[in-house]
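Re-run with default settings, no changes from the original entry. Doing this only to confirm the output is reproducible before filing.
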Amino acid sequence: MAHKLIPYTVIEKALTCDPEALLKVAQNYDAYITQLSKCPVAGADGVIRFKADEDMKQELVLELLTKIPRFHIPESPDKKT
């Protein structure tokens, strides 16, 4: 599953809990989170299908958003003054 990389500036803003940046990060991983939250559900015809569990999806998004501010980006050697 390929997805676009999040620009570094957005990541920096997300680390400071900028709401717009956090939303962009969550949107970037929406398809992956949806895939992770799928559970088997038996249909009326007896066929088992996988459907996203919205509660689980929201828990995964919440977990992502609460962990982002704890993420530490090491300072690049070329940025040191």
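The longest strand covers residues 38-42. The mean pLDDT is 89.
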